[in-house]
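can u do me a favor
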């Protein structure tokens, strides 16, 4: 099978690999489409993992083989693949911190080498723990593979929305109107909130309005805080979701978030970035700072429901489609997006 192998920082190699062998409790999925995620891009651009590996985790495809002990799944079924599932027994899982679970981190779908997602390949192997514990989601007949590939990123965004306790009537500032920021706009609106978005690209500012933002501004606008105060009766927003790794965006969030509000870090910052802050700002204004990483097993069914029942329009986020052999080109476009670049999908 063909796969894009990570051979080092900024080094992707389009190679022939053996199709993974199955154990008795495992399933093999032919990848029909896989989303290109910002986390994949970071893993390719920075020395975070030892090569060789095959990344890619927003996967949808067709089951082409099942192990001898697999009874719940058959060849030919269309599925969205969750690349990891928590153990549901450890102290982290007992506190709903599923993404901190060792099982969640270490038992991962693979196309070969150290298990790392494996979606950037023609076939991906799903370990028995994931097969048995809800990591395969049947795709309804009227849903495309493209739409199904959004279940995992929807879950990640949904986790952040739930963690920030966004409620009907609240106003939410979303910094960054790329694919993730736009999905936040859709989800905030779906849950009854009012979204305000910022970005540097005029086309993304316009796109945010198209998908449901109440207002959208250039992030460099010197009057941004005043404009947001004007939209919120002088209060500021209830919640800010940081969808870009920018210290400037964080300080804007402090200026724009009301007393008693929340600021949630969703985008991963480079490790060398440090943000100085006077702790009295948090103390006196009672601002809550929080982070949200990866997905939540508890929200998996809700994420699938939101995508499969078109409660948000994930197709509106798709801008580009690349064959697997051109993954490097897709990554370059994602790093330096054009005016019309949003979600990029890859086809093995």
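np, heres the sequence
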């Amino acid at each position: 099978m063909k796969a894009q192998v990570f051979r080092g920082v900024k080094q992707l190699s389009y190679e022939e690999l053996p199709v993974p062998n199955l154990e008795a409790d495992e399933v093999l999925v032919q990848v029909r489409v896989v989303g290109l995620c910002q986390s994949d891009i970071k893993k390719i651009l920075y020395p975070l993992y030892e090569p060789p590996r095959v990344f890619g985790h927003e996967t949808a495809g067709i089951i082409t083989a099942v192990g001898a002990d697999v009874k719940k799944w058959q060849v030919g079924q269309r599925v969205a693949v969750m690349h990891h599932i928590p153990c549901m027994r450890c102290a982290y899982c007992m506190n709903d911190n599923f993404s901190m679970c060792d099982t969640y981190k270490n038992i991962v779908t693979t196309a070969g080498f150290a298990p790392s997602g494996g979606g950037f390949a023609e076939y991906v192997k799903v370990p028995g723990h994931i097969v048995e514990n809800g990591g395969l989601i049947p795709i309804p007949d009227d849903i495309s593979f493209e739409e199904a590939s959004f279940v995992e990123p929807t879950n990640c965004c949904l986790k952040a929305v739930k963690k920030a306790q966004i409620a009907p009537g609240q106003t939410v500032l979303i910094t960054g109107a790329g694919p993730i920021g736009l999905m936040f706009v859709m989800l905030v609106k779906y849950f009854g909130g009012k979204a305000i978005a910022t970005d540097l690209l005029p086309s993304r500012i316009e796109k945010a309005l198209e998908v449901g933002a109440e207002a959208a501004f250039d992030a460099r606008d010197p009057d941004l805080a005043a404009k947001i105060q004007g939209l919120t009766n002088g209060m500021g927003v209830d919640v800010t979701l940081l969808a870009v790794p920018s210290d400037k965006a964080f300080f804007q969030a402090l200026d724009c978030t009301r007393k008693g509000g929340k600021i949630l870090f969703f985008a991963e910052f480079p490790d060398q970035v440090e943000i100085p802050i006077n702790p009295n700002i948090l103390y006196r204004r009672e601002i809550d700072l929080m982070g949200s990483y990866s997905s939540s097993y508890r929200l998996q069914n809700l994420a699938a429901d939101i995508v499969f029942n078109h409660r948000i329009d994930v197709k509106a986020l798709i801008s580009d489609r690349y064959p697997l052999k051109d993954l490097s080109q897709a990554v370059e476009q994602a790093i330096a997006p054009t005016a019309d670049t949003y979600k990029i999908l890859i086809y093995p």
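Residues 27 and 66 are 5 Å apart (CA to CA). hope that helps!!
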